Structures
1.
Amino acid sequence: MSMKMEDEIKRWTAKRKSALVLDIIQGKTTISEASRSFDLAPSEVESWVEDGKRGMENALRANPLDVREQYERQL
């Protein structure tokens, strides 16, 4: 992503969100820079980063939880 996205994003797909989250994790940008650049609420970007971290943690488990099991644990 590296801030070379289309001028105006009409829809934030999972692919676009994950690219932005990856840039944040890699230190290429910050949450505040991303929120300003793409006119997003910082809390929204923060939630994407947290979701990404949770998803990554599950993917790296020896026995990953399925989506339903993850949801039920959060409740």
2.
Amino acid sequence: MLVADFSRVLAGPYATMMLADLGATVIKVEGPGGDDTRTWKPPVLTDPEHGDIATYYLSINRNKRSIVLDFTDPDDLATARRLAQRADVLVENMKPGGMAKFGLDHASVAEHNPSVVYCSISGFGSRGGAHLPGYDLLVQATSGLMSLTGEADGPPYRAGVAVFDVLTGLHAALAISSALRHRERTGQGQLLETNLLSVAVSALVNQTEAYVAAGAVPHRMGNEHPSVFPYQPMPTKDGELIVIAANDAQFRKLATVLGDPAMAEDPRFATMSDRISHRAEIEQRLLARLATRTAQEWYTAITEVGVPCGPINSVDGGVALAEELGLEPVVRAPDAAAVPTVRNPVTYSATPPSYRRSPPPVGADSAEIRSWLNG
């Protein structure tokens, strides 16, 4: 399967990397300046041959080939059109209407390639929001996510990663897979459109449903959960520990292991709704018990009885935990660059992801791709 990747930055490249991991041949089309993320540094990986490479770019461009095409150059534009005509899948995230200027929009491509699965990604859709630039931070702000993030009496905060770019990429990859299955049955391609704001409204799940179904407008609660308690960091004798009791059985186990089984028998705390109504009273009892032992001691004891809890790691700690649990989070392609990247998170019993190529230098495959397209 050939994927023509006309996308840049994060959402589109993440989607095409997911497809590449599963065996697709992905040709990454870059302008003369390369993908924007090549300049988003530090952090960098220092390479003797290519200098400092932005780790942001490395994180989303594994298993691809790169060709540089200048759409203002007639020969390059002709090459881009030939690529689109041969592609099984085309992914782009220009502003809506941007590809039409070059005869690379869905209608133009499908005229010569009717079976193409064409996926357009934008920030705010192709209707009223077509003129708006699609940056994740804007969508975190405008969707309501930032209004939910931070302390109740503090300012709104963004998430520490571009969550809606990543989720949009995942939705796009899923949609492409579904459209390819449809094409397999019918021979028909189709146009897929998704945008960061629609994904954000969907991805806020219980928070947006609270509003659309019950008229309840969610608000910042720091690390607390509006519907589950306890479900937050809690201080111990020497540091904080995430403690979760997502149902009544877990709460009974938690009360017992903390040495206060009567807490679970108290009618004020019997159900989740009761615990939410008496959050302050329970919290004081939990904190009093947790203060008697260290975070590690409580982590061992609480985990042993099947109640969810865990430390608050930095990113290196998260990677170390994945390694400790045998998840093998870091992979390297068997090429000369052997750049370390993060493993595809899905395990398949019959068709596992493969890691064939390190993220390519800009235009690394231009000559090979041009020769193939002209052949």
